[in-house]
UniProtKB/TrEMBL annotation:
The keyword Iron-sulfur does not apply. NCBIfam families: PRK00094.1-2 (NF000940), PRK00094.1-3 (NF000941), PRK00094.1-4 (NF000942). This is Glycerol-3-phosphate dehydrogenase [NAD(P)+]. Pathway: Membrane lipid metabolism; glycerophospholipid metabolism. InterPro entries: 6-PGluconate_DH-like_C_sf, 6PGD_dom2, G3P_DH_NAD-dep, G3P_DH_NAD-dep_C, G3P_DH_NAD-dep_N, NAD(P)-bd_dom_sf. Sn-glycerol 3-phosphate binds at residues 108, 138, 140, 194, 247, 257-259. The keyword Protein transport does not apply. The lineage of its organism: Bacteria, Bacillati, Bacillota, Bacilli, Bacillales. NADPH binds at residues 13-14, 34, 108, 142, 258, 282, 284. PROSITE patterns: NAD_G3PDH. Residues 183-323 form the Glycerol-3-phosphate dehydrogenase NAD-dependent C-terminal domain. It catalyses: sn-glycerol 3-phosphate + NAD(+) = dihydroxyacetone phosphate + NADH + H(+); sn-glycerol 3-phosphate + NADP(+) = dihydroxyacetone phosphate + NADPH + H(+).
Length: 353
């Protein structure tokens, strides 16, 4: 396979970890950051100490603060900006992006102002069809990928040639395995909503509720993800895969999960503003809770865990009150509840949705 010139925007923890995978595969990587001090540290010391302390980056990665320098000769561009910044970063990159450049993103969230998925935001700002944009998602902590721990993810695009091109860029025999999937809506929805459930898992653990409660939260959280995803047009089978249950498990159970840590701090009584300040990095689940709360209403989907977390985050409800509200819900049938959002999609899933 011919080695490629790849731009990675931006140099956070996940962008840096994926830049390592690309460099390990022999690609020439330009890692863009707005911060000149960070760029200098990466280039001189081969470190990105704020986001991945202790990790040494390979020589194939060059940091730059000039987005034109990063993008203008790139054969592939990987967007890893926070959801709140994706439109702005895409707008800056657009004038320098060639029409044949492969576009990939690895951001898990919605644009809360418009409720749009990241692939839609990119298509709008880059002036290209959404069908050719690739989504990278799955169970993958930057702290493990940077240390070359075995990881398996999925790349999704309606254009299978684009998905396979991204698969070729990232996959290696040493530690990074990549599957393809045509269900962009399902992969993006699962990646975004699982952060909400991880906030809930952190709350549960912070309150000392134990494994029974967390197992229930993860399982019922998956049902919420699947209901909303099916209502938005996703293939329900996607939620049984890496982007669904796989990513949900790792985000709800790992010490590396920002969303889990934020939920745990909230359970200790810290106000949301202080939690976010202490984290020092983006906690996508907070913004996504706002978006999902509105999306659930828009699509007529029940999302009780999401609703209660919305009340905790933004309406002053205590975590204990939220647990009481969930436990006191009207009794129902498990399979009927899961299938209620879109029975036809569950019972007769159509390939390629």
């Amino acid at each position: 396979m011919a080695h490629k010139k790849v731009a990675v925007l931006v140099a956070g923890s996940w962008g840096t970890a994926l830049a390592r995978v690309l460099a390990d595969n022999g690609n020439s990587v330009k890692l863009w950051t707005r911060n000149p001090v960070q760029a200098e540290q990466i280039n001189r010391e081969r470190r990105n100490e704020k986001f991945l302390p202790g990790a040494i980056l390979p020589e194939g990665i060059t940091a730059t603060t000039d987005i034109a320098d990063a993008v203008s000769d790139a054969e592939a561009v990987l967007f890893v900006a926070p959801s709140s910044a994706m439109r702005d970063v895409a707008r800056q990159a657009a004038p320098y992006l060639h029409k044949n450049t492969l576009v990939i993103h690895a951001t898990k969230g919605f644009e809360i102002e418009t409720l749009k998925r990241m692939s839609t935001v990119l298509a709008e700002e880059l002036g290209r069809p959404e069908d050719g944009i690739v989504v990278l998602s799955g169970p993958s902590h930057a702290e493990e990928v940077i240390n070359r721990h075995p990881t398996t993810i999925v790349v999704a695009s309606k254009d299978m040639a684009c998905a396979e091109a991204a698969q070729d860029l990232f996959m290696n025999d040493a530690y990074f395995r990549v599957y393809t999937n045509p269900d962009v809506i399902g992969v993006e929805t699962a990646g975004a909503i699982k952060n909400i459930i991880a906030l809930g898992a952190g709350l549960s653990d912070g309150l000392g509720f134990g494994d029974n409660a967390k197992a229930a939260l993860i399982t019922r959280g998956l049902a919420e993800i699947a209901r909303l995803g099916a209502a938005m047009g996703a293939n329900p089978l996607t939620f049984a895969g890496l982007a669904g249950v796989g990513d949900l498990i790792v985000t709800c159970t790992s010490k590396h999960s920002r969303n889990w840590r934020a939920g745990s701090m909230l359970a200790q009584g810290l106000p949301l503003e202080e939690v976010l300040e202490r984290m020092g990095m983006v906690v996508e689940g907070v913004r996504t809770t706002k978006a999902a709360h509105v999306l659930a209403s828009k699509h007529g989907v029940e999302m009780p865990i999401t609703d209660q977390l919305y009340e905790v985050l933004f309406e002053g409800l205590s975590p204990e009150q939220a647990v009481g509200a969930l436990m006191g819900r009207v009794r129902t049938h498990e399979i009927e509840e899961i299938a209620s959002a879109s029975r036809d999609k569950w019972l007769n899933p159509k390939p390629g949705l």
